[in-house]
Design goal:
Blueprint lengths: L1 E4 L10 E4 L9 E10 L2 H6 L17 E9 L11 E5 L8 E5 L3 E3 L6 H4 L3 H14 L7 E4 L5 H12 L3 E6 L2 H10 L3 E4 L5 H8 L7 E4 L5 H8 L5 E4 L13 H6 L2 E4 L2 H7 L1 H16 L7 E6 L3 H9 L6 E5 L1
Parallel strand pairs: 8-9, 8-11, 9-10, 11-12, 12-13, 14-15
Antiparallel strand pairs: 1-2, 3-4, 3-6, 3-15, 4-5, 5-7
Helix pairs in contact: 3-4, 3-10, 6-7, 9-10
The chain binds NADP nicotinamide-adenine-dinucleotide phosphate (NAP).
Length: 324
């Protein structure tokens, strides 16, 4: 097998495409022939030693991938050779093969495309947990999605539309705004050109969004919170812009609004049943054509550094795939 190996987490430049012995699955594990892996923002951080979970060295990065099971270890009960699966974790996906625990390999429903499966559970799982579970989104709500052309943002746009809500998508260029309208957004705001608060006033008749989905943080966060509607719910999803924003506590008071934390990784660990229910609803929406990952580009697995460079420079609309 081949894998991108990280034995020194100082950045992408230290990763090496390395030939390794193909591992036999341990007890309770399955070996997956990786079909494709997608790049998620934490993958950028993990190889720089900046992510909260730090895999022991050396490790193979790649938090999300799809493939076909080609060997099963002792005690594996629910999976067999030939099953098509998706897997989300912290590492292992940027390779031709990966061994994971049985519980970390999710069998795919018939008809679920293997490319889409490599770019689904992380982003759609996060955005479903955020909007449907944590924010209890209603069809009468208006949602502002920040970073709407990115991975979790593009999933949030589609999920909010699937739930019947009105979606305002915010992104940093006209090109990204056009992409968000193609995803289903009802209105867009180019935050590089337009003042966020003025634009939100104009597209919501002064009322403000009921729900804000924020994977970006930085300086947009306070402006977005100041615009939120009475009884609004502000979803803290991530800090792609870097700085973790601070909020004056009088603002939630004045709006009767909630600041709602979203941590999909711990939701999966702490509430596996609720997580499976969310995924089942998403699989149903996928079968109905309501949600589908927007794949920006497919690159060969060996082109991982190019994929990292594009994500790091905000050059991706939707998801980047690395295929074997
Ligand atoms: N809480 C959770 O459970 C959870 C789960 C998954 C991901 N996340 C977090 O969500 C965030 C987004 O993840 P993602 O995979 O969707 O990433 P992504 O595909 O790279 O999207 C991030 C978006 O943020 C915007 N952005 C603004 N400033 C940026 C900067 N300085 N660098 C990079 N992007 C910037 C970009 O949009 P514009 O160019 O349009 O501004 C970009 O499209 C990350 O912080 C990630 O850790 C959290």
């Amino acid at each position: 097998m081949h894998a991108w190996l990280c034995d020194n987490p100082v950045g992408v430049q230290a990763l090496r495409w390395t030939e390794l012995p193909t591992p036999a699955p341990l007890v309770g594990q399955v070996r997956i022939a990786v079909h494709a892996a997608s790049l998620n923002f934490p993958d950028l951080l993990t190889v720089q030693n900046k992510y909260q979970h730090k895999p022991p060295l050396p490790f193979v990065p790649g938090s999300e991938f799809s493939g076909v099971i080609e060997a099963v270890g002792a005690t594996v009960r629910h999976l067999k050779v030939g099953d098509r699966v998706a897997s989300v974790g912290v590492s292992g996906g940027f390779a031709t093969h990966a061994c994971v625990d049985e519980a970390a390999a999710v069998p795919l429903p018939p008809g679920f495309d293997l490319d889409d499966a490599a770019a689904f559970a992380f982003t759609y799982g996060t955005s479903h947990h955020a909007l449907i579970d944590r924010a209890a989104l209603r069809a009468c709500d208006t949602v502002l999605v920040l970073g709407a052309a990115g991975g979790v943002g593009s999933a949030a746009v589609q999920i909010a539309k699937a739930a019947g809500a009105r979606v305002i998508a915010a992104a940093s260029s006209d090109d990204k705004c056009t992409f968000c309208r193609e995803l289903g957004a009802d209105a867009t705001i180019n935050v590089s050109r337009d003042n966020l608060r003025d634009a939100l006033k104009s597209v919501t008749d002064g009322k403000g969004p009921d729900v804000v989905y924020d994977p970006v943080g930085g300086e947009l966060a306070e402006a977005a919170f100041r615009s939120i509607a009475w009884r609004g719910r502000y979803l803290v999803v991530g800090f792609a812009a870097g700085p973790i924003p601070a909020l004056p506590w009088n603002l939630p008071l004045l709006k009767g609004a909630s600041v709602v934390g979203v941590f999909w990784g711990d939701f999966v660990r702490r509430e596996p049943k609720a997580c499976r229910q969310g995924l089942a609803e998403l699989f149903g929406w996928y079968a109905q054509g309501k949600v589908k990952p927007a794949i920006d580009t497919r690159l060969p697995m060996s082109a991982l550094p190019e994929a990292y460079a594009r994500m790091g420079s905000r050059g991706v609309r939707g998801k980047l795939l690395l295929v074997n």
